[in-house]
Design brief:
There is one protein chain. This protein has 219 residues and is α+β, with helices and mostly antiparallel strands. The protein has three domains: 50 residues, Herpes Virus-1, CATH 3.30.40.10; 59 residues, no CATH class; 55 residues, Herpes Virus-1, CATH 3.30.40.10. Helix content is 16%, strand content 9%. The protein has four helices and eight strands, in the order αββββββαααββ. It has a two-stranded antiparallel ribbon with strand order 1-2. A two-stranded antiparallel sheet has the order 3-4. Strand 7 and strand 8 form a beta hairpin. This is G2E3 ligase. GO terms for molecular function: ligase activity; zinc ion binding. Pfam families: PHD_G2E3 (PF26054), zf-HC5HC2H (PF13771). InterPro entries: EPHD, PHD-type_Zinc_Finger, PHD_PHF7/G2E3-like, Znf_FYVE_PHD, Znf_RING, Znf_RING/FYVE/PHD. Keywords: Ligase, Metal-binding, Zinc, Zinc-finger.
């Protein structure tokens, strides 16, 4: 974006109300043609919205978000394959399933945490499928960092200990791009206070000056 275009986008976002929390400053608009729902990135999980952290970084409201086009196999126990706690008996925003084996069932927040830790080693925790599984998870809004898994040694991991330095907001408003950061002001980069694996410019997530911490949608 040019500087003038960015300023215009910021002014427009300031006039838009988040359909989840009803506060102003919603900078993300559903990508579905004809849908004018807008929301803040931190509000997305509450409203069951999806942001795809790949390609064009598209975002969708609860009504138009992508859904898994398959049926989970019936099992005697409806438990998450990761945390072993109970899951829903059907596929939903909060309950997902592996498209390959269709047997691994897991909470959205569980598979997101696994993705953040596994990085380039990410795969189905049950059948170990990679390509169809990864593509499905990316489409469903799971954030997958391109880095070695956290359980490898520091020497093998290499870049693992480097500070995350990219804005992951669904719509980045910075005229200099997602990699640009400043020490303070609207283009200061905030890292997730829980996982530090995702970041956002202060302006891109409508963070006020009184904000002391920020958590990504996964945490």
């Amino acid at each position: 974006f040019l500087v003038g275009d960015t300023r215009r986008i910021i002014r427009e976002a300031a006039k838009k109300r988040c359909f989840i929390c009803f506060k102003m400053g919603a900078s993300i608009t559903c990508c579905e043609t004809g849908c004018d729902r807008t929301f803040h990135l931190p509000c997305a999980p509450v409203g069951e919205c999806v942001t795809q952290y790949c390609g064009a970084y598209r975002s969708f409201c609860w009504e138009h978000r992508p859904q898994q086009a398959l049926q989970a196999r019936l099992r005697q126990e409806n438990t998450c394959s990761i945390c072993l706690d109970a899951v829903e008996d059907k596929i939903s925003y909060k309950t997902m399933v592996c498209p390959a084996c269709q047997d691994a069932r897991f909470h959205r927040h569980c598979i997101q945490r696994l993705a953040l830790h596994a990085g380039i080693a990410f795969r189905c925790p049950c059948c170990h499928n990679r390509e169809p599984f990864i593509m499905e998870m990316l489409t469903m809004g799971i954030r997958l960092p391109k880095r070695p898994p956290s359980w490898e040694s520091d020497q093998a991991a290499g870049p693992l200990d480097q500070r995350h330095s990219r804005c992951d907001a669904g719509t980045c408003l910075c005229p200099e791009g997602r990699e640009h950061t400043e020490e303070d002001g609207p283009w200061q980069l905030w890292l997730c206070s829980s996982c530090a694996s995702e970041g956002t410019h202060q302006q891109c997530s409508s963070l006020g000056n009184s904000t002391h911490f920020w958590e990504c949608s996964s945490c």
